[in-house]
Each structure stands twice: as structure tokens, then as C-alpha cells.
Amino acid sequence: MHRTLLVTLLVVGLLALGADRSQELFSPLQQVYQLIKTYYYRAEEVDDQTLLHGALEGMIDALGDPYSTFFDPEEYTRWQESLRGEYSGVGMEITIRGGRITVVSPLPGTPAERAGIRPGDWIKAVDGESTEGWTLEEASSRIRGPEGTPVTLTVQHPDGTVEDITIVRARIHVDPVRVEYLEEEQVAVLRLLRFDHQAPSQLREALLALPLAELKGIVLDLRYNPGGILASAVEVASIFIDQGLIVKTAGPAYGDREYYSRGNTFPNLPLAVLVNEGTASAAEIVAGAIQDHRVGVLIGRQTFGKGLVQEFVMQLPDGSMIKLTTGEYFTPDGSPVQDVGLTPDIPVEWPEEVAEGEDPDLARALEWIQEQVGEPVGSP
Questions:
Q1: Of 94, 160, 299, 304, whose CA is between 20 and 30 Å from 222?
Q2: Known catalytic residue at 306
Q3: Predicted model pTM
């Protein structure tokens, strides 16, 4: 199929305009293509596929939505790789807020965390080049790189201080679930780092391996969890919620959707969920459902506030992909999350200086669980 015709067809499909109207509106694309081929002095060096990708990427960028993205084949391959929890980089989740490349959270145990990257940091430059006007994909591509190579990030912290942080890239491997059993307190601490395809099954395995007969409660640590797959969030929430609505979404293409608990087979126990400014997206879905169903309490600080749903809506024959924000999600009680976040039931403010190994959030969670022993627990 001729590339100019393909551009027109894709544009028409993506914008869902009437056939006659869209042909008239986007006919300049065909004209520009012909002008480039006829008059551009290096037209023979310009690949048709490059022009096609440029047109599509420009349309997505024009939405002004940092979560809608055009992936070329290489970018899409890297994205799939990262979703599997294995890639070469520094180990952090980023977004765009107010036009700024902003850190959602560094992943625990990664070079980014060890170097001092924190949620809310504004990445002003990468290797001396300003990030102004960059897309998320541009930023991700520049920050990632071969294992063992350095990258220097110019970072402005939330307190206004600016510093250059040089980080050596490493092979990042992220196991979604980490578990620790505190024998003295008889409490399980489950840290969920991301919502990928493996997270629900690994969480179930971790829970079933616990000494259930003596278990007094569970701490679900969602701090610095940047989110992931919607279906994974629904499955994880179902582990703790016996029945009822987990999350509802609203969007123009698919209308209103409701996702319900698939049934809880794990014993209902006092449940404390740790959240903070790095808890985002799918992690907020789980935390919001637990809070609304009152099967647990949120402990910590206000969450990030990403309440939008993205879906892959089209893959081109060359392997490139278009991801669009198709809707917004709401907690079971109907509360929005986007740009708002979740307010913890028990807020915890950390002191300026914390001794090594001290965790005020966890300490408050353990205290709360001990207060609940003997009290009835369950979801309506």
C-alpha cells in the first residue's frame, strides 16, 4: 500500500471522523508528502516509513497527554522488555507533570535509588542536554543505555535544590513481590514493586507459604510502586476483597466499565497498606479498593494521583504501536484519582533524620495490627 494512502487511512481511523470530512481535513498530509518527494533537496535519503512515523508521532504529541505514545518498533520492544522486569538502565519510573520530566519513583535496590533519586524529582537535563519539550519515550531512551555506562542527570529536588547525579547503568531485574515474616510480631510484610503479569501469582504463592495458623496480620507495602497492568491490579485486589466492585472506568470508546472481585480465598486478617507519593496508577487501584471496602487501612502519605487508563489501540505491520489514554478510573465509591491521589487513613510524617533501618510507616502499621487482634475483619 502506498505510504501516503496509509497515512490518510490511519489518521482517519484514529480520529474517527466521517469519511468525507476526514479526507478533506487531512488531504494536506498527502500534499506535504508529495512536496517533500518533489522539492526536498535530499528526498532520496528520506525513508517513507520515517515520514509515516513522524506524522503519527506528531499527532499523538499534539494531544498533550504524556501517557499517550507512539512506539516505533525498537521502542515497543524495549517497552515489552521492561514490562517483563528485565532491562538495562537506572531503575525508575518517570512521567510528565507541568511539562517537566518528573520521577514517579525509583525502584528499590536499583542504581537510581542508591544514587539518591526520589519521587517528585524534576529531571532538567540528561548528559547536559535540556529535557524541555521531550516526550516520555525520548527521556526513557536517553536515560537507558548499555550496562556499565554512565548517565548524568541534572535533577531539581522538590525542595528546590539542584544537583548533577551520575549513575552507572545496570541490568535491572525486578521481582514484583518480596516477602518477609516478622516472627516476633507474627506479621507478614509483603512488598509489591510493580503490577506485571507475574505479580498476582507470586503474591498468592507468598501468602500461601506463610504460617497461617499463627499469622496476626498483613502489611502490604505499595510505597514507590508505579503501577502496571489493570488486570493485574484487579487480581491482586481480589485476593483481599471477598466480593464487590474493585474499580470502574469511563471513556468515550468503551463507555463505563466495572471490574469486580474474582473471589478471595485467603483468610481475612488485619491489613495495613503502606502508601506514599510514589504509589501510583494500578497501585492506587488496589489501595483505593481496599480503603473503600474497609478491609484495611492506608498508612503513610498522599499517593501520586495517576488515575488514567492506557490501551494499545493499533499495531502497524512494521511492529510500531500506538498507545492511547482511553479512560479515567474511579475507586468503588466513585472517587477520582487523577491529579488527586488517595488520602491515607493514618497519616505518618517522617522526621528529618531517621536512624538506619528505622521505618516509621511500618512501625505504625505493626502497632495498628496489634490493636486489631481479636476484632472482626471482612469485606461487605
A1: 160
A2: yes
A3: 0.78
